[in-house]
Design brief:
Elements lengths: L2 E6 L15 H16 L4 H6 L6 E8 L8 E8 L7 E9 L5 E9 L1 E2 L5 E2 L3 H8 L1
Antiparallel strand pairs: 1-3, 2-5, 3-4, 4-5, 6-7
């Protein structure tokens, strides 16, 4: 089940044309996955406190329409259950109406321990994302 959260496009997110700069979509993807975990009762910071980190190993975005200054956007985040070794999040960003697609993309993450070694996703995270 996808999770939805909102975010407002601030002036600093935009370029000279008043449109959101393309790199900010990856920051909004991060907002989406952070709130995805929080909505399931686990802050991202708690995962790190337990000794696990999720560095991005791959990312992709496809832009459909620009977001503009002061616009409220909706970030939809879901987990791709087919990925086993790490975790892959799929994102869609909409205008406030929830119907006009602005962008979609994904990020893949490895799980690493405090020493930077790649590890299997911990059971508490696997359980959380299969709920």
């Amino acid at each position: 089940m996808p999770h939805r959260t909102t975010c407002r496009v601030i002036y600093g997110d935009t370029d000279r044309m008043g449109q959101a700069y393309y790199g900010n979509y990856f920051r909004w993807f991060e907002v989406g996955r952070t709130e995805f975990f929080r909505a399931r009762g686990l802050a991202y910071s708690v995962i790190e406190e337990r000794g696990f980190f999720l560095p991005v190993s791959e990312c992709h975005a496809k832009y459909a329409a620009p977001a503009y200054y002061d616009e409220l956007i909706v970030i939809e985040t879901a987990v791709d259950a087919a990925v086993r070794g790490g975790i892959k999040f799929d994102y869609r960003i909409f205008r406030e109406d929830g119907a006009s697609l602005l962008a979609e993309g994904w990020t893949k993450h490895a799980f690493v321990d405090g020493a930077g070694r790649v590890v299997r996703p911990p059971a508490f995270v696997r359980e959380l994302i299969t709920r």
